[in-house]
Amino acid sequence: MPELSAVNQKWALITGGSRGLGYAFARECVRKGYHLFLISKTAERLRRAADSLRSEGDRRVEILPLDLSQEESASRLSKILNEKKITPQVWINNAGRAHFERFTCTTPEEESEIVRLNVLSLTAMTRLALEIMPRGHLINVASTAAFTPGPGAALYYASKSFVMNLTLAVSFENAKSPVKVSLLCPGPLDTDMLSQRGEKGKRADFLVMSPEKTARYALKKALKGKTVIIPGMSNKIMAAAAHTLPRGWIVRLIGRSNLR
Questions:
Q1: Which of 49, 103, 210, 256 is deepest in the core (most CB within 10 A)?
Q2: Other C-beta atoms lying within 10 Å of the C-beta of residue 212
Q3: For residue 96, how many other CB atoms are within 10 A of its CB?
Q4: Tens digits of residue pLDDT in 37-47
């Protein structure tokens, strides 16, 4: 892979960067002096996010409307970064999709999109980041859902478990590399994804964190080289409990919460 940047500039690439946690990451990266390369599916939302971020400082903000669930998205992104001579020093794979319903109520089209975006695209983006970046920090966003099965959102939980296991393996393989790989496992966040859950989401109000606080904590830890990042003491306790409590108990607790 050829060198992509002829100038010494700090760039942060963020998928799903137009709203929610991705946008919060973008704001935090601007504060730390990074130029931004934001990717999201919706062009208008991206433009609004970019305008807002440009008003917060003198950082460059490049945008790319791109459906990451499509097979050719990684090769297209690689070509555009090469053309623009941009080499990210921070790469955040944040884009993802969830569907909160019984597995049998999920359509094949919804299933396919979740797998393509949460699993296949993240895999391709992880490989591309490691090929392109000579050094820096790669953050893959999973969830505390990664630690357990999830009745009521079975495919989402399973996809985040994939993200966790892939990222931890890649992090170990690249332990001596100048590119440090981190796994972020936030709990419920005050974003559009939480609102999709309706009344189900409200039952976890005490666990909900702001995307801004989460992004600030996660970026600070990632830049220090931490591998597994779990923001919030309650989320740390829940992750630890997932390893110690009987799996059957965990499944029943989650099922009762998600399927009411």
A1: 49
A2: 16
A3: 25
A4: 999 999 999 99
DSSP string, 145-178: GGGS--TTSHHHHHHHHHHHHHHHHHHHHTTTSS
Q: Which residue is associated with the tokens 């606080």?
A: 213
User: In this structure, are strands 90-93 and 11-15 parallel, antiparallel, or unpaired?
Assistant: parallel
| Cβ-proximal residues to 168 (8 Å cutoff; 6+ apart), any chain | 183, 227, 228
Using the structure block, give the residue that is written with the tokens 């393509």. 116
Beta bridge partners of 229: 184
* β-strand pairing of 90-93 with 228-229: unpaired
90: three-class secondary structure by DSSP: strand
Chain-wide mean pLDDT for the chain?
91
As to burial, measured by CB atoms within 10 angstroms (0-12 exposed, 13-18 middle, 19+ buried), residue 248 is exposed
Residues of the chain with pLDDT > 70, as a percent, come to 91
**pLDDT tens-digit readout, 224-241:** 999 999 999 999 998 998
Count other C-beta atoms under 10 Å from residue 189's C-beta. Answer: 22
Domains by residue range for the chain, with CATH: 11-258 (3.40.50.720)
Helical segments of 34-121, H only: 43-54, 73-84, 108-114
Phi, psi of 123 (to 5 degrees): -60, -45
Residue whose entry in the numeric block shows the structure tokens 């305008």: 51
What is this structure's pTM?
A: 0.90
* Gap between the Cα atoms of 217 and 210, Å rounded: 11
User: Which two structure tokens, joined as six digits, stand for 244?
Assistant: 């110690």
